[in-house]
């Protein structure tokens, strides 16, 4: 009889532990809403289930930041943000979320700050309508250890590391379209690249276009001061989000050449069949007072030079 009771107690204890594991906030399943916190050792990020509250994006962002400061409900994670750090301002500019912290932010040790920043940015990017996050301290843009302004951040700035494995690299050849000497046609250029497997190919293509051609006979098309905010592909549409600097041309090329250098290059190298260009998350823009960017664009190979004389 005692043996049966002992077995029953062991079974009950096991069931309690099993239920506790299943109900753990770190047991995030597909489709669950979640935020990022730190692991107990503060060496990595942990997904923690949480249903965001708020009537608009800014209120939801504030709710997330508050939750990231609350004491942990269990030992499997720790808050990402210290209680001493206060959110002084939070506002939305187009699709850019600006968050300003008090001076206590600067007291965080460098390694922990990187993880805290990664948790903050990746949690806020889960909000609808937020494509990039900008952080500041007492109104001054956040800087890294070298004193350089960090600027806008999106998901491509942080590699989610669940097993401490380093990202792998791969090689490939991109087909890119740049301007000809006259600026009235596109010329094709093959570019061999080696890149991290964590970098989406569509982002790599846009970045290479922004850097300009490497060979003779091809010329840049995109204002080099332009900031790329985000690049994503959904339902075969590639959404490329720039800041407003993109609308200012500094090269003597036709407006169509700049636009279709992007469109034709992206469609040539990805599964996208259309490209939607946005400015600070907004589609209500016209490039150089000529090209309407309110709708996705399809490739147009008529702008590509047939021979080298064009």
UniProtKB/TrEMBL annotation:
Signal peptide residue numbers: 1-26
UniProt KW Signal keyword: yes
Pfam family name, one: Germane
SMART domains according to UniProt: Germane
Domain of life the protein comes from: Bacteria
Keywords: Signal
Domain GerMN: 61-146, 202-288
The protein, known as: Sporulation protein
Source species: [Ruminococcus] lactaris
Record lineage: Bacteria, Bacillati, Bacillota, Clostridia, Lachnospirales
């Amino acid at each position: 009889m005692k043996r049966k009771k002992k077995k029953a107690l062991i079974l009950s204890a096991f069931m309690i532990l099993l239920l506790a594991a299943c109900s753990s906030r770190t047991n995030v399943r597909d489709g669950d809403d979640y935020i990022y916190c730190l692991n107990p050792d503060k060496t990595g990020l942990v997904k923690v289930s949480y249903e965001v509250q708020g009537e608009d994006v800014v209120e939801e962002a504030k709710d997330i930041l508050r939750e990231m400061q609350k004491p942990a409900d269990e030992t499997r994670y720790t808050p990402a943000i210290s209680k001493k750090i206060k959110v002084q301002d939070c506002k939305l500019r187009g699709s850019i979320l600006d968050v300003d912290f008090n001076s206590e932010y600067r007291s965080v040790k460098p390694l922990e700050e990187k993880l805290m920043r990664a948790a903050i940015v990746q949690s806020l990017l889960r909000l609808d309508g937020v494509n990039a996050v900008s952080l500041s301290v007492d109104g001054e843009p956040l800087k890294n250890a070298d004193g350089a302004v960090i600027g806008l951040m999106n998901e491509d700035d942080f590699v989610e590391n669940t097993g401490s494995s380093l990202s792998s690299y791969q090689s490939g050849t991109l087909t890119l379209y740049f301007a000809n000497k006259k600026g009235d046609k596109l010329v094709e250029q093959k570019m061999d690249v080696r890149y991290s497997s964590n970098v989406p190919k569509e982002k790599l293509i846009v970045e290479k276009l922004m850097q300009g051609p490497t060979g003779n006979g091809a010329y840049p098309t995109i204002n080099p001061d332009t900031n790329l905010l985000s690049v994503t592909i959904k339902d075969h549409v590639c959404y490329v989000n720039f800041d407003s600097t993109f609308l200012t041309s500094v090269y003597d090329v036709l407006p169509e050449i700049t636009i279709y250098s992007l469109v034709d290059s992206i469609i040539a190298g990805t599964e996208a069949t259309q490209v939607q260009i946005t400015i600070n998350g907004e589609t209500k823009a016209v490039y150089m007072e000529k090209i309407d960017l309110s709708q996705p664009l399809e490739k147009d190979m008529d702008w590509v030079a047939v021979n080298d004389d064009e």
